Amino acid sequence: MSASILGFPRIGSKRQLKTAVEGFWSKKISQEELLSQARQLRQDHWNLQSSQGLTQVPVGDFTFYDHVLDHAILFGIVPERYNAADAGLERYFALARGLQVPSRNIDLPSLEMVKWFDTNYHYMVPELAINQEFALDSSKIIGELEEALALGLNARPVVIGPVTLLKLSKTVSSASTLSFLPKLLPKYVELVQQLVNKGVKTIQLDEPILALDIDEETKEAFKTAYTTLSQVSGAEYLLATYFGGLGNNLSLVAELPIQALHIDLVRDPKQLPKVLSTIPESVNLSLGVVDGRNIWKTDLNNAFSLLQEAAKARPVENLTVSASCSLLHSPHSLEAETALDAELKSWLAFATEKVVEISTLASALKNGVDSVKAKFEENAAALQTRRSSTRVSNPEVKARVQALTAADYARQAEFPVRQAEQREKFNLPLFPTTTIGSFPQTSEVRRNRARFRKGEITKAEYEQYLETATRECIEWQDKAGLDVLVHGEFERTDMVEFFGEHLSGFTFTRNGWVQSYGSRCVKPPVIYGDVNRTRAMTTETAKFSQTCTSKPVKGMLTGPVTILQWSFVRDDQPRSETCQQIALAIRDEVVDLESSGTTIIQVDEPAIREGLPLRHENWDDYLQWSVDAFRLATAGVKNSTQIHTHMCYSDFNAIFQSIKRLDADVITIENAKSDLKLLHAFEKHGYKAEIGPGLYDIHSPRVPSTQEMKDRVQKMLAYLAPSLLWINPDCGLKTRGWDEVKAALNNLVDVARQLRKEH
């Protein structure tokens, strides 16, 4: 009987990794200090798992930026242009975030970045050259393995499987990425041999692609890959699948020469009987019964029932209790949440607490429930308290949802009518310029926010500071020549947390951080009950902002689907119902903004594609309620009010009809890291509304030249009419510094001016 997890959060209990990495970038600490702090973090996390009774610890799940990027380095998938950077961490971070060193004539954009399956984690897309040659650099994973072995730990290396790695990659040629498998496999064999030589017994190969619908080419690739890997003497493999059930891929997996299989029984508990009857008894099973993606306490009795079902078919020594997926997507620990409401806290479990749940379940399966009776009783009491709590349900909210009609989801007129009224009202120039919303959250912004929260300055003093920062931001945009301005969002810590703080049914943590990309961490709100807007959220700021300029200032709101996706969502009612409640709250805010004089309103939905189910059979239902939620939030305004939305890191081709059905007047999209591939969809499907494909990547500190951005626009004009094209960055500017923002936006405005002369 064993207990283990697939991976642990990297960032540390107090975001130590973020501090160390950003300290290294700013040259406040040396490379040696960075490596030392990272080593201590890894050891702390391994020791935590071991102390709680886990029988194996994952090794290789730690990364300075992204685990997929680490695998690109591991197998030598480094585009030749990055050889301009020094080998090691400079090249690594150049791939991750770009590198601009004029004195060395280096100007490298970063790799493309997209979402990791249906999560809010972003990964860097490996880029395969036409004549790609692979080269193994195992120094990182071998080094971390040696660290764990030196501590006397039973270590299990974690490696992304070869099929998933190639499926997540891209190539500049028209060839399938799987066509590179024959060249890549020898490097996997070489890596496995090195790990076996170090005394490793089991190697975890992550293949989450098996939770998707896969074609025959992919199935054949799995057979080839695992037949080849099975030939390494002494190697045993744990094939890890997660984010969904195996579905029709189960028979394929049953044929693979593996020694252990991990399945996600949180996303798909109903797959267990078929797995037990189909997977050979010689294959050990790792059972993911604890949710690695959400923060609610596990129902130990329900989880134990699944384990008992497995134990009836397999010897317990051939079973492992685990989380559904890596705990990467969970915050570190509840220990620091001393200010959290005691009742709400009793309903939650972060990564550290999930490790305890796993250990408890393993003990129950091995020694009987009585051996951990007190823990089971405590768990049941907390769950009953949650089920019976009056703070969870709001009858007025439920009644309002029930009373909705088809008219609540439709604008007054079709887009051409609205467009004509909006153009007459705003009189914007050709190629109007704007930004996506946020401006730099400088150390001064964060310091004043912290001083206010600590009571060092009064509310009036803090609000005065925010007004000053907002006015300066708007005046700079006005002077720079931007056409539609934003207020900068200095009052907001996060685009979801800010709104959750103004809505009932939400609660918040102090240290519930999870990694989004690189050193960027987010602290998702917790939706525990019915959602309702109790007061206006942004109207006063919007009214003040408009007094700072004669140009239009956008009202900035986060859309209902994104608030849902980027929160820890209650699991006691359908997500679609929670989303409707949020949509009504945002609708109230949209209507109030219009009434107060803000008539360009942006309702961001960067997560709408992210929430798409991994299996096609579930798409229609999701796309229906998610698009309906956006329409419900935005349909209550006049024709002359212009509704914008923003989306990022999304492949729109498969869901384009749903994107059109959003019925937004202007859509801005991430584009600079995507090689214009998204624009093919807009041309192919005949998108007629206005659109702003991002001209430069805001996740990199580099400043693009005017010519670089103009060249990008010229390519866009092959797909889009000049009368429909907006000029804007990829995303919000929150994480950037003012110097680079000003330089980049000055260049962006210059692009628009040149284009107006030419058109």
TrEMBL record:
The residues that hold L-homocysteine are 436-438, 604
Free-text remark on how the cofactor is bound: Binds 2 Zn(2+) ions per subunit.
User: What's the family?
Assistant: Belongs to the vitamin-B12 independent methionine synthase family.
Q: In which pathway does it act?
A: Amino-acid biosynthesis; L-methionine biosynthesis via de novo pathway; L-methionine from L-homocysteine (MetE route): step 1/1
**What EC number(s) does the entry state?**
2.1.1.14
Against HAMAP family, the record matches this protein to: Meth_synth
Q: Which InterPro entries match?
A: Cbl-indep_Met_Synth_N, Cobalamin-indep_Met_synthase, Met_Synth_C/arc, UROD/MetE-like_sf
Please name the GO terms of the biological process aspect recorded for this protein, alphabetically.
methionine biosynthetic process; methylation
Task: List, for all copies, the residue spans of the domain called Cobalamin-independent methionine synthase MetE C-terminal/archaeal.
Answer: 431-753
**Entry binding sites for L-methionine:** 436-438, 489, 604
Q: Does the keyword DNA repair apply?
A: no
Q: This chain belongs to which protein, by name?
A: 5-methyltetrahydropteroyltriglutamate--homocysteine S-methyltransferase
Q: What class of enzyme is it?
A: transferase
What the entry lists under NCBIfam families is as follows:
met_syn_B12ind, PRK05222.1
Q: Which residues bind Zn(2+)?
A: 646, 648, 670, 731
Q: Does the keyword Manganese apply?
A: no
Domain Cobalamin-independent methionine synthase MetE N-terminal, first and last residues per copy: 3-312
UniProt function note: Catalyzes the transfer of a methyl group from 5-methyltetrahydrofolate to homocysteine resulting in methionine formation.
Residues that bind 5-methyltetrahydropteroyltri-L-glutamate, according to the entry?
Answer: 18, 120, 520-521, 566
One Gene Ontology term of the molecular function aspect: 5-methyltetrahydropteroyltriglutamate-homocysteine S-methyltransferase activity
